[in-house]
């Protein structure tokens, strides 16, 4: 929904050589969307050595991506109120970011007002409606959510909670599930870090008695975009934790592909608990050794003092890690995917060695929006270093993004790959701290 910032260098031509070097580095990191390095640069660089506007801009971006929405709203409001001349054509980008962070903090009416005003102004200027309709629709969604009152209001007290972890096996592919209830009706739910929101099928929404909202939603999935509706669960309980007013996207999971839909009928998709509920938990410890999810009272401090997770523009999670070559890779963190695999962005940079070492194969994926079958190569082994742990995975597929039937490029993902559940299962425990935005993987103790 927003474009990259660029041409910031032209704003600082009158500064000293030293200031130009510092500002140039910060501006370059913003232009590259290198948020991990930008966060570190801000920590290491004296505040008075960066121009006030650029420091505010860099601070706004890092607070947005590293899940500090309250402070992001403050900084973004300052930029829009005091630095519109410097922002120039990028003022609209800041308006969109501010609306996103207002929604993240529960201020849906304010977020809706910003987007509606933006839509009205662009419409008055004669902007193509195909470029503006998304702002109007998002404003409508925010207004519908605002009418529900406070969302995700906790009914449980602050304490440690331990929830039994169910490792379900669907045709050789594992998933993490949890027992709980929606509106008092017991059920089993999917724990999915790859879901930017909570999802439920129309049949299950009716079964659990969700309240439908007057708001449409478009959800992106494996095969493209899918239209659905918003609905509210009056109560959601997971273990000893419970919340009031929990939104779900009601999406028909059928793909139109006979084989994929038969598989889905056999292994029906349960209600999906996505990132919004996990952000309420703040930290989740996946204890594979004892098969439980632990929600601690006090979040675990990062052992490195920095983040290796961020929130993406599609409301997902991106993990910065390294592979056996020592080079950093940026992976979509998705427990809803069993397999870990590499994406076209990584393949394009390593095409020669992959074509040489890999075995030609295909990657078949079915999910919301349809089915995708792409040409891949299968590498014999890859190592992923996550915190202090290393996951060695045999037979890792590398997606070329080329459709197996048409020969056309089908995938345009910018991330290097997907970190799935088969990597996490290599560890005794995985800590996902969504307050400080880091993930740590703890190996099994060596047997004597």
From TrEMBL:
Recorded superkingdom: Bacteria
Q: Does the keyword Signal apply?
A: yes
The residue range of the signal peptide is 1-19
Q: Does the keyword Signal apply?
A: yes
Which keywords fit this entry according to its UniProt record?
Signal
What InterPro entries does this protein map onto? Peptidase_aspartic_dom_sf, Retropepsin-like_bacterial
State one Pfam family annotation. Answer: Asp_protease_2
User: What's this protein's name?
Assistant: Peptidase A2 domain-containing protein
